[in-house]
Amino acid sequence: MDQTPVQAPTHRNELAANPKDTEKINNIGKLLEITGARNMTQDILTQMLNSIKSDDP
């Protein structure tokens, strides 16, 4: 059975099949920004990378 690789969308609007999906994606982005989840995720990733680097230079 041949498997064709799936290409990830390069732009978030490519994920949307219709305008309602685009609006939903934009609203989710706004929610992440308002709640601080986007910054929190970046902070966690930075801490994890720093921890990994200090464990194995």
Structure report:
- The chain has 57 residues and is mainly α.
- It contains two helices and no strands.
- It is elongated and about 45 Å long.
Secondary structure tally, helices: 2
Beginning-to-end CA distance, first to last residue: 42 Å
Shape: elongated
Low-confidence stretches: none
Whole-angstrom Rg: 17 Å
Could you provide a short overview of the structure?
It is built from 2 helices and no strands. The protein has helices at residues 19-35, 37-55.
What keyword list fits this structure?
63% helix, 0% strand, mainly alpha, single chain
Q: How is the topology of this model organized?
A:
Elements: H1 19-35, H2 37-55
